[in-house]
Design brief:
76 residues, mainly alpha, Arc Repressor Mutant, subunit A, elongated
Length: 76
């Protein structure tokens, strides 16, 4: 799997982060099996697909808290 494919995975996640992206959807997008995508994602990014999604959501929520006047419960 090329670095471009890994970049496509990350870009796809960023584009779909608000719509609850799944490993199966991402693997369909890049054209590899979910198992292979999961393995290569972890090898190249350093964390699992699910952990990456969790960390990105937490980062986005932190930005929302910092940049808005919304309540924490609304952002969560």
């Amino acid at each position: 799997m090329s670095i471009n494919t890994i970049e496509n995975m990350v870009n796809w996640i960023e584009d779909n982060i608000t719509s609850n992206p799944t490993l199966a959807e991402m693997s369909d997008y890049v054209g590899y099996s979910p198992f292979y995508c999961s393995t290569k994602f972890r090898e190249n990014i350093g964390i699992t697909f699910k952990k990456y999604i969790s960390k990105r959501r937490l980062s986005l929520a932190a930005l929302d808290v910092k940049n808005t006047q919304e309540r924490f419960l609304d952002i969560a």
